[in-house]
Each structure stands twice: as structure tokens, then as C-alpha cells.
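user: can you give me the structure for this one chain? C-alpha cells are fine.
assistant: on it. calling the predictor now.
[tool input]
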Amino acid sequence: MARGGCQVEIAAKIVAHKADFLLALKGNHPVLEKEAGSYFDTAPAHELVTKTAVENGLGRIETRIYTASQNVVWIKAGKSYPGQPRFEHIETLVRVLNRTEYADRCTFDTRLYISSAPLDIERLAGGVRSHWGVESAPQAHTRRRFNVMN
């Protein structure tokens, strides 16, 4: 819970500095993560924008399908539970389906994100791609990509 609460505080500070956040939902907000996943599974096609990217290198082929929606009214609705951290500036949801093909196997991964940025699939896809690099590179790259000030 503390970790999720910290994300809410950080997101608010980012927006206060006139920048946008892009945060992964990876178990830190399980209810929001589950509901976002369910939303993408049932969302009408007219609410979604999609982009597919294929990269070939380092002994693998990666296919990523980025899907985004600006339908976030349901997140801001009155559903809550005591102590729930509340993001106040979510404008876009993003789901990424990733398929990685190696010579001997394929892996599949689904990641969900929330963002304060308006729906711009190219910018969001670039931010997500940079986000994955954060795990092995300095976070400054993501800050520059999304114009986040310290």
C-alpha cells in the first residue's frame, strides 16, 4: 500500500510541474490493474486506438500491440475503499501485448499503464518503450521522453 501511495504522490508532483506521468500497473494497485485489464477485454472498438510495432534484433523478434483509450470516467467514479490511493489526473489507459520470438521459444507479456497525457498513441508507445528500458537504464531517459521535470 505504501508503494502505491507513493506513486499517487509522485504523479501529483509531476502534474504540478506541468508534465505528464506514465505509470505501470504491476500489482501496486491490484484493483485498478484488474479493472483496467477487464476494460480492455470488453471495450468497444470505437473507444480504442491501436498501434503495432515490430523490432528485430539481439536474437529475437518483438511484436508489441499498443492499445490506448481515453475513456477513464469509470476510474474517476465513486467506487472506492478505505485508504485507497486516488490518482486525480488519469487521462489515458494503455495496454501493451508483447510477443517475443526466440529461436527456440516465444514469450507473451501484457502490461498496463495509466497516464496523465492525452491520447496520442505514438507518444504513449514511445513512452512505454522507454519505460521498459528504465529497468536497466537511468530514469532520466523516461523523464526526457515525457518532459518530466524534477
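assistant: here you go. Confidence is low (pLDDT under 50) at residues 135-143. The two ends are 24 Å apart (CA to CA).
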